[in-house]
Design brief:
Length: 344
Amino acid sequence: MTEALRQDSVLFQHAMAQLAQKKGITLDHHQQRLITRLEAVSAPWLTSSGQKKTYCGLYIWGEPGRGKSFIADAFFHWAPLAKKKRVHFHAFFRELHQLIARGGSVNQAILTAIGDCQLLCFDEFHLHDIGDAMLIKPLLELLFQRGVLLIATSNHPPEDLLANPLYHQRFVSSIALIRQQMEVIALAGEKDYRTLSHEEHGPFSTGGLLLNGDQALRQRLGLPQSAPAPLALQVGYRTLQTLSPAQDFLHFSFSALCEAPTAVMDYLQLCDRYPQWLIEEVPELARVSPAVQQRFINVIDVLYDRQCRLFLTAHSPLPRLTRGVELEDIQRTFSRLSLLPVYQ
Ligand SMILES: Nc1ncnc2c1ncn2[C@@H]1O[C@H](COP(=O)(O)OP(=O)(O)O)[C@@H](O)[C@H]1O
Ligand SMILES: [Mg+2]
């Protein structure tokens, strides 16, 4: 961090006030409080006054669309620290597993993944599988030992992480560590701003949800037609089936993408190669198994984070597609898909 940066930087509160003004939005009082706490907790990292650290970071949780990523990302960009890293949980855990698979210890893999950052923003601190969850404790311990400022966002309070009763007990000590070392703050506004706002949300939201199979519309949108038979697409060691040659669009049926044993790793790799996706025939999700629902949730998480442009075809409007799904993460999926223009 340079002296010049420190001197030039305004308070985060001021930077946020300016950003809100520029976007024409009003920060709600939950958001104002979060901004104040972010400023207070991070002060020892950002000032040279030798101030004592009260916490090693902040754990921000709340329902989708409350502004968690908005504020955490703004903090990330604003924070006058030279070495900072922002990660998204799917990509981060895949990277860690790959590093571990190449040999070496878990700690070594974690150190390679975090590098020498002073600030780590961990967007969507969500855990679905015990393999990921078991990496959290060594990750937190290393981050805290090394004095890295950690800002995590999640849809769940720490106590609800890895809720599966089969595994939860094994995660209790990590929850205690979060509670001890991080300030836990809820962003509990009533509105899902994502569903309300009409601002530009990036390429993801320039796709659409098509509720009828009108060929003229598909043509107008530049969407591909299905080939006479499915085509094989190699991703790592796995072969996926696509509906047309992977050119402008990566073109899947819902069943080939979510009912086959595909994995987050596949979606991450494909996103790097194909920025536009078309997923056909998304069913009412309550009718498919929780494993299939979870794959669809993961696909949408990855496409949203990587800002791929997404088109879906379905026979039911969005509320019916997600209605009756018990996995809590479906709220996040709903919030994200609500950004897609609907063509009916
Ligand atoms: N106070 C606000 N007024 C209007 N829009 C807002 C406000 N706070 C956040 N937003 C917008 O709402 C959208 C969702 O916010 P985001 O931070 O992605 O939510 P999440 O809590 O799910 O991470 C973003 O486009 C963001 O710019
Ligand atoms: Mg978010």
